[in-house]
Amino acid sequence: MKIKLIDICKKYGKQEVLKSVSMEFSEGVYGLLGKNGAGKTTLIGILLGIIKANSGEILIDGKPVRSQSKEFLNKIGYLPQYPQFYKEMQVYEFLCYMAALKGLPKKETKNKVEWLIEEVNLTDAKKKKVGALSGGMRQRLGIAQAMLNEPEILILDEPTAGLDPQERIRFRNLISKFAKNRTVILVTHIVSDVEYIANQVIIMDEGDIACQGNIEELENSITGKVWEVTRNKGQDMDDLDFSNVSNLKREGDNTKVRVVSDTLPTKDAIITSVGLEDVFLYYCKGDKE
Ligand code: ADP
Predict the structure, then answer these.
(1) Phi (first) and psi of residue 196, to 5 degrees
(2) Residue 6 contacts residue 59 (beta carbons within 8 Å)
(3) How far is it, in rounded angstroms, from Cα 144 to Cα 113?
(4) Quick check: helix, strand or coil at residue 17?
(5) Beta-carbon neighbour count of residue 287 at 10 Å?
(6) What pTM value is reported for the model?
(7) Tens of pLDDT, residues 14-65
(8) Please, are residues 219 and 275 in contact by the beta-carbon 8 Å criterion?
(9) For residue 256, is it left (φ>0), alpha (ψ between -120 and 50) or beta?
(10) How far is the CA of 137 from the centre of ligand 1 (A)?
(11) Which residues line ligand 1 (CB under 6 A)?
């Protein structure tokens, strides 16, 4: 399935939240990356038909989405940023209920729910009330419900919020496995969420696309613009512009500072290899947090 968003514009009052945004999704894992307020959730809301755009068009396999929207929505699994769950239901019950809402045939439901519970590592919590789950467990339950109808397109908004490092790894594996022959869109402001699993990354900034491509292309686009400055304990750092600093790392008595800059940031800076975190900083310098 090919999704094409063409010249999507959205205003709230005078604020242009989306400034004629165009992008395409086909099979694979996409990372839609941007700071809070960049316009990611609005764009996804428009794609899902929850929010109305001021102008622009959405094509699914070349056809305008309006004419086939129900059919289209059946092919989508969505985990919103703040999912609302029925707190009194048990995990197993909840998934069966969601399966019924999504129109899954009854005879398929039991196996599917059992399988998903195992996949997202909630087997021990099967009989627990949803309201009693930890944040991470609830997130995994959200992922499981989004995957119930084995959607062709799975959209996860801030999917690793509340997950501990181990759960994040499990999540990545789950997505990689699930992504075969499908489209997965990970919407996030956390670079490491997409760094290891996204085939394509789209970075949004202030309602616009700042850059897009595969991770290698994006990293190559700023080769020679990432610097490392090493300072030892006694040395001050007053000459560094911290809005350009992508990372600080202590090594013994030294601090290694990564700086993203078009030009030599300090006399003692040396060029170093590029990571996606640096790319993100380079293209989204505006402070909107
Ligand atoms: P992101 O998902 O990247 O954090 P959003 O799409 O949620 O960004 O928001 C983009 C901008 O639109 C923000 O400045 C936000 O305050 C504004 N915005 C979002 N929803 C509304 C709304 N319903 N009314 C007014 N402004 C909104």
Answers:
(1) -100, -10
(2) yes
(3) 8
(4) strand
(5) 7
(6) 0.89
(7) 999 999 999 999 999 999 999 999 999 999 999 988 899 999 999 988 988 8
(8) yes
(9) beta
(10) 27
(11) 12, 17, 34, 36-42
